[in-house]
Specification:
The complex is a heterodimer of chains A (173) and B (247).
Chain A (H helix, E strand, L loop, with lengths): L1 H21 L3 E2 L2 E5 H4 L2 E7 L2 E6 L9 H14 L4 E6 L12 H10 L1 E2 L29 E5 L7 E6 L5 E5 L3
Parallel strand pairs in A: 4-5, 6-9
Antiparallel strand pairs in A: 1-2, 3-4, 7-8, 8-9
Chain B lengths: L2 H23 L8 H29 L5 H6 L10 H4 L5 H22 L5 H29 L3 H14 L20 H18 L22 H10 L1 H5 L6
Helix pairs in contact in B: 1-2, 2-6, 5-6, 5-7, 5-8, 6-7
Classes of the chains: A alpha/beta (173), B mainly alpha (247).
Chain lengths: 173, 247
């Protein structure tokens, strides 16, 4: 019984260590965000001597996924892990609700407006009232949508009407 | 649901998304303004991503070293099960928009049903894709309204596009044999699709075409227009010229 508890604890510690190693893997398109910040690491499993990292894509067509898979393998190899498996799952579907608070702060500091905590526009109806998005530079809410589609699948393009800066908004999903 | 239906149905969903995505990608670098060029490229990316998810699933069920790439690049036109609508030429901006609108609304209501399907993977892909398709429906319907309720020129072009494309919409609701046992209610799908098209057309001040008119079909069974051959010739060129090449 005591041995069993010791084993579980040991396992927890090494899983925690894997999570901290994974902090070094960033999104190639938004390099300030780690894959932990993004909320795409769903689980880390220890299968005997193998480490299995379970990830989920943000958008179906996210071109960064293959790159992220390779990088997960790289950082774990560098830390001495040898048997590594990266598994991609689609369910449950990723949502911006899984982004960490720390991730949202990093985004803002980088000049990208973080996703609003509750999505107000998620229906297919046309010409809806725009979401109130805060300008990441001057904090004004006096902003307007230029395009629902931005430089990557996960972003929309906005402009601040006060400081006039255009900026990306990491849209709610 | 038997395994053969699941394979054929999954490939049908994949082919629809891939060919529509490929057609949209033809606009990349040619959009009327930068923001709309980027919008179409983003929609393309979503659709090709959805196609990959479906092909990967079909490849797993088929086995025998089948891969998403062999399904996309090594089948000929007669094996493709996409509906005729998605392979139609882009034409002008109005035709591209109207094609996207018809297709996105179809995907939206189809995925609404598939999100409760008893096949776990079809269900997962539908739930994931639905979030993306919601944006496509909004974007394309706003453009239909702008064009229809815009200038005389934009309205004329939208009406011409309607004349070109309407005959391909009937096929969406005419189930092929592999669609019959997938727990999709085609009557409901048609009803919801028609209702949405009608409400956007009303806002765009254009009239719905007459009901029960003749429509084209065959794509879902592998009988395609000549356009698909040209799409495949371009899309599959590298794999045909340099078999098994990878990068």
């Amino acid at each position: 019984m005591i041995n069993l508890i010791a084993m579980i604890t040991e396992e927890n510690i090494s899983i925690k260590k894997v999570y901290s190693i994974l902090e070094a893997v960033t999104d190639p398109e938004v390099p300030v965000l780690s894959i932990i910040d993004l909320g795409i690491v769903k689980d880390v499993l220890l299968n005997d001597d193998e480490i299995e990292v379970i990830i989920t894509p943000t958008y179906s067509g996210c071109p960064a996924m293959d790159f992220i898979k390779v990088n997960i393998r790289m950082v774990l190899l560098q830390e001495g892990y040898q048997k590594i498996k990266v598994t991609q799952v689609l369910s449950p579907a990723w949502t911006t609700d899984w982004m960490t608070e720390q991730g949202k702060e990093k985004l803002k500091a980088y000049g990208i407006a973080p996703p609003n905590s509750a999505q107000s526009v998620c229906t297919p109806d046309s010409f809806q009232k725009e979401e109130a998005i805060q300008c990441p530079r001057c904090n004004s809410y006096h902003t307007h949508l230029i395009s629902q589609f931005g430089s990557t699948a996960c972003k929309a393009l906005y402009q601040c009407l006060d400081c006039k800066e255009p900026f990306d908004y990491f849209k709610c999903h | 649901m038997n395994q053969e239906s699941i394979i054929n149905y999954t490939i049908h969903l994949a082919d629809n998304a891939l060919i529509m995505g490929h057609r949209n990608s033809e606009w990349c670098g040619h959009g009327p303004i930068l923001e709309q060029d980027i919008a179409l490229s983003n929609i393309s990316l979503d659709l090709i991503g959805q196609a990959r998810n479906y092909y990967q699933y079909a490849a797993t069920v088929i086995g025998n070293n089948t891969t998403e790439d062999s399904l996309a690049y090594l089948r000929d036109a007669g094996d493709f099960k996409n509906c005729l609508l998605v392979e139609q030429p882009n034409g002008d901006w109005a035709q591209t928009i109207l094609k996207q609108f018809f297709f996105s609304v179809y995907q939206y209501y189809l995925y609404q049903q598939l999100q409760y399907n008893n096949d776990d993977q079809l269900k997962a892909i539908a739930i994931k894709s639905l979030k993306e398709v919601t944006y496509h429906v909004r974007w394309s319907s706003e453009w239909v309204i702008r064009l229809g309720d815009g200038t005389e020129e934009s309205k004329t072009r939208l009406l011409k596009a309607l004349d070109e494309l309407w005959m391909f919409t009937g096929e969406l609701f005419e189930p092929a044999s592999y669609e019959l046992n997938m727990n999709v209610d085609f009557d409901l799908l048609k009803e919801e699709w028609t209702k949405k098209i009608q409400s956007v057309f009303e806002e765009a001040t254009i009239a719905m075409p007459a009901k029960n008119n003749w429509h084209q079909s065959g794509g879902k069974k592998g009988k395609h227009s000549e356009h698909l051959g040209y799409i495949l010739a371009e899309m599959q060129f590298v794999q045909r010229a340099y078999p098994n090449s990878a990068w």
